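It is worth pausing here to work through a concrete case rather than discussing structure prediction in the abstract. The textbook approach is simple: state the sequence, then state the predicted structure, then interpret. We follow exactly that order.
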Amino acid sequence: MRAKRASACFPVILAAGFVAVLLAGAGCDEIDRPGEPEQARFEAYETFPTSLHATAEGMRTVFNMDGEGPYDDGFGTHTGKDYETMGCKMCHEWGSFVPRPPRDTCDACHLDNRETEDHTCYACHKRQFLMNDPSKLAESDVHRSMGMTCVECHKLEELHGDGTPYKSQFEVSDETRVTCQDCHTKIRSTASHDAHLDAEGNRKLDCSACHSRTVMACYNCHLDHGSVHQGMKKDWLFLMNDDRTGRVRAATFQSVSTHNSLTSVDKFIGFAPFEAHTTMPRGRECDACHGNTNAAIDDFNTNGSIKVTEWDTTTTPHDLWKLDGVIPVIGPDASGDERMIFDYLEYDPDGDSWSELVTTGDTAVQHIYGSHLTDAQLACLTAPKFPDPSITRIWPKHGDPAGGYTLTILGRGFWSKSEVTIGGTDATNVVVVNSWKITCEVPSGTSDTDVDVVVDNYPTEPTAPEDTLVDGFHYD
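Step two, the predicted structure:
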């Protein structure tokens, strides 16, 4: 069945947005931290009532979107349901998991401790807790592994508010919200970084597109039974355009089903940009996203669509099959039929079991503060891409013709599948240390000869680039 289209979103964002932070002071009129200017204390007291942490407008706003802005038709508008009566609030509202003081007071975060700790933030930002907890999804993050906490990145203006009553975290001004460039002021020139610049030298990708390991989605909330969902899913990362920056970035989604819609829509899915806090120090390689070995792209190239999930009845008990890896968010075809295929589920509370939801109702697909990839962007992903290797120097430059010793190759554009030949013979024990360094074992050769050193970035692919250091090595 053809899905109804809309340009807005499902409320996939937590009530205060997806940043995993809360306040950084004690009771606002009683703060007494050494060295803190008194003016800052009064400013926090005055701006906090309009902050997203106090109003929790994020969830309510996207639920009730009704077309009076750039985004329209939230889940509430599609189904005629009242946000105040929905089970969404069980997960996305203040104090859902542990009893808390009133949300719009300083004590909500600082009753027990004056300095905010991560566990305070996790009381509401449950998705971050589930991602980070070793007993749950146990996903690592380079910043957290260095001992950093939420408040070391997120500014006071972001936590206490800057005096503007925002409706969503996605509307917070650039001056207030945190970005990678606040700390990483210089982006090193690498083959991957340079390949994703436009003609004017501007970045086309957000850091999260390559450096976020995974995102999490609580799959298929069945809203007829409170806030129940089929399970926490990870090991995938969606890509969509971010309206704030114009760049492609990491995203996640939320799928919803209901039998109690007041309209024809009983299935709903929404995509939104997302910061997963699963940052890797080294970014993805080309084939993680492009058409070399990417499962989603392979499916699209073969079938013209991407099957993201499927209810698997061959297992006992039945369970959900899901696609792993990087998945582009794509739009409908020319006829308006959706090209991202999801199976929707329903929950039986009596049997505590799930089954596929089979209905004649419509599906609403929406995007919040972002959009699906364009046809041109998708075409770029469907073609195999390889970095262009460049050898700048090697060490040593000569050696015994018997071979068996280590050669170090420096340059750029190397990747994990790079292979090396010396004098036309394959080098052994090739180790791609990083994108600019390879080590290998020199094969035997003919004495008193100069030979070429070649780095081939994909030996089994005829179109893959290679670089040759002509007569670069001498056999003594």
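Step three, interpretation. Confidence is low (pLDDT under 50) at residues 1-37. The CA atoms of residues 447 and 475 lie 5 Å apart.
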